[in-house]
Fold:
Amino acid sequence: MTDWKSLKYLIPVICSVCSGCFQSDYTRLVKSEMAKNTRQDSLLLGLYFGDTRNSYFGKCFDLNKQKLIVPGPGNSSVQYRFTDSLFHKEPTDVRLLFRPTFDKNDKISEMVLEFSYPAWAPWNRQFQSDSLEQKVVKVLMHWYKGNAFVKAHVNEGELPVKVDGNRRMMVYIKDPESVIVKIQDIMHPDFMHSISQKKN
Structure:
C-alpha cells in the first residue's frame, strides 16, 4: 500500500534530481562558477573589466607607444597582430581587432574581439572563418586556461561558450572572413539577465 504522506516529501527531491539531469552543460557550468563567488576580470593586454574609459584609452596609448597595437579600421577599434605557431601547421599571421563596451558609469562591462587572417581572400580556403573558429577556441584556451568550452543554445544555434567565474566568452562566426568573441561580465547588471534567458 502506497504511503502518500511519505511520497509527498519525495516528490520535490525527485523533481530536483530530474531537473539536474536535464540541465545543459552550460547551465551546470554557470551554476558551478557562480557558487565559487570568484572574479576573473582580466581581458587582454592588461585591460580589465571595470577599467574606466579614461583608463582604457590611457592603457591603449601606452600599448601603442610600445608598438604592440595600432588603431583599427575607422578608429572605432584597436588592432593587435600576432603570429600563431601552436595551432596552425605553419606560423600564421592573425589579426585581432578589439573594442570595449562601456556601461552607464563609463566602465568596461564587455570586450568584443574580432579575429581574421590578414591573408584572407574569398578563394583561399584555409583562411575562411569556419576553419578559424576552431583555432580561436584553442588560442583562447591557451591564453586564459580555466574551464573548457561547452556548447550553449543561443538564438536557435549552438555556440562554443567558456565561463570562468564572472567572465563568459562566446565565440561565433560573423562572416566568411571574421570570427567574433564576446567577453562579458555576467555579474554585471547589463548581463545578469542573460544567465537565466539562455535556453538549457
Observations:
- The longest strand covers residues 92-102.
